[in-house]
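At this stage, I put together one protein's amino acid sequence and its backbone structure tokens, which the following lines show:
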Amino acid sequence: MNERTTLPRRLIVAATLLVAVVAVGTAGYAVLEGWGVFDSFYMTVTTITTVGGGEPSSMDTAGKWWTIGVVAFGFGVLTYTVLALVAYVIEGHLGAQFLERRMRGRVARMRDHFILCGFGRVGGEIARDFTTEKIPFVVIDIKPESLERAAAQGFPVMSGNAADVGTLQAAGIERARGLVTAIDNDADNIYVTLSARVLKPDLFIVARANAADAERKLALAGANRVISPYTIGGRRMASLAMRPTAVEFVDTVLSADNGQLLLEDLRIKPESSWIGRALVELFPDGDEAFVLALKRGGEMRFRPASDTPLVAGDELVVAGPPPAIQALEQRL
């Protein structure tokens, strides 16, 4: 059991003992001396704190012996309670709880964000790309060191098991744009994918596969895309060896720092006013943006005809200078 869970329990035990001593002391004075509840309580408190204030009335020998016992046990319990509270504050647990509540409030205000599950080496790279693209996201991890690393970089974090329904709901999965699970354990990624798909059936989910046989399982669990870092890494190395200039061009286009040509995907929403209109109408004369592909019903059409009518759910892959892409997004 770690220190974060030990200290709060210690405080609960100390507070319980203190309340018990006060209650027993009050009852003892009431029985032995025949005082009222308030007078007995007052005597107990002043005795435990060693403040003193005089007895409500003269005590007999039994009451004096009772006072000695209350001082001996009560002062010890009070001292233990104060020390536990001071240790709790000094070790930063109250501050940590305050920061956690503030982080939860920050996440509660997020909309159209991504949920990033796992902040290892792969998750760290994903977070940096999200930051470069100015895409809001929240990190979920169960490892304290990973959360501290993410928080140190200014990322919003949530502590917990990403497969738990409560954790995903706290991360705002109902309002999320998508989820990326990059945990280094395939079983965890499968459970996260299943939980996310149940909570939000239309959520876009990208899952990491560490073993070859996990790819099919993740797809069956509901992942829209399954990525194996080792497979992708091997293919990229082979492509760089065979087509270095082409790969460099693609990297440049996909980079958020590129100011000449951007590659973006846009979706025709069901409520869009562009439904039924020809594709060419999206691009007025002189517009530098152009369509590379149109995805409809799972089928990718490269360089679609300009008179193709747009339908709800169409996904357009467009390229062009940043101002032209921004103008296209505004038109949509």
The chain has three domains: 3-90, 110-227, 259-331. Confidence is low (pLDDT under 50) at residues 1-6. The radius of gyration is 32 Å. The domain at 110-227 is CATH 3.40.50.720 (Rossmann fold).
